[in-house]
Amino acid sequence: MEAPALLRAWVLAAVALGGSWANLPDHRVLPDHRVSSEMGAVFVHELEQELFQEAFLDEYEDDDVAAPITFHTHLRDHPDLPRWLRFIQRDPHQPGYLYGCPTATEVGTHVIEVLAYNRHTYGTAAQSLIITITPAPGGEPPFQAEFLVGNRNVEELLPVATQEMFLQDTAGVWERDDLRVINITSALDRGGRVPLPIEGRKEGVYMKVGSWGAFSPCLASAASPQSRVRCSLGQQPLASCYDTFAPRFTIRWCNLTLLQVWPSPTMPGLVWGSGVLEDEGDFQPPTQAPALDLLPGYLVTLLVPLAVAALLCLLLGHLMCCRREGVEKRDLATSDIQLVHHTTIHGDTEELRHMAGSRDVPRPLSTLPMFNVRTGQRINPMPGPSDGAHVPLLPQ
Known about the structure:
The chain is built from eight helices and twelve strands. It has helices at 3-16, 49-53, 160-174, 217-222, 225-232, 295-322, 327-332, 336-358; strands spanning 27-29, 33-38, 43-47, 69-75, 85-88, 96-100, 108-118, 124-134, 143-149, 180-186, 205-211, 257-260.
């Protein structure tokens, strides 16, 4: 493993185990940065490389060349970011972005730990990003439209200036001036394919825009069932606003989604008390549970399998013993000629076996032992009458 990978793994392990930032070598801690966002609106925070470059100026010899910086982010005391927040950095020479859309469950304060890693000097710098999520005063916009921008990557639409340009083009289609960006999602996070490394190929970005006014006839016709049928046939949908976003944004109108969100009633949250019992301040433990009768359950568990096994044994015994045909029934179903033929063959076989067992013929010479490997004893292969084949070669 290379030195940068080892250092990064060591730093992340130290942070995960609750180590102090000040104990890391060549490490600098930047002041905390506080930001706020409303519920139901897109949150984008840019991690500027210039801010962290100042912390690495005294480490890098050539001040004219900016050192590449890699960012790592995670929720404090957690190994990863919260579910509503995403991070992207395409290249060490480009800034990183934290973006997402907080919901009602994320209202509160979130502390994100940002670790900047210098790829030249292996130095690190840390900063705590404190994000405060507040409820939206007017609630979530009830009318929402999601566009698929095919000629952009997600980091290209995260800057505020690019979002303003997209809202201007959307206002020409929607005919509303109260539009705002609700969420920005990469097409890869929605199941899209990674584009080929060809110039001009982009991942695609889903832009969700909300408004308090109804959809325009142009958007309604683009998302109508007739347009869906034309899209399934490979044709353009029925709409008069195809090129409104061109040439800056290429909208795939067949992926247009119109949503109408109605406000849901808010449930009252939990009210935390002082932690002291109000009535009769003594804690009363629960009474002892009554004794349970486990005998019926034990008998059912034991007797039911035994009864099933006994029934199976009876059924098997009936099939094997009570349903046999017998020899007499088999002989009655067999012809006399076949029985005589079988009896003759059986009798001849027994006679041959009897004759072979009663003959007294000496063993062939080739079967006699000639030499004992263990004792070295030799024997005459042509024995006389007194020391025939019955003389043992091996000692007793």
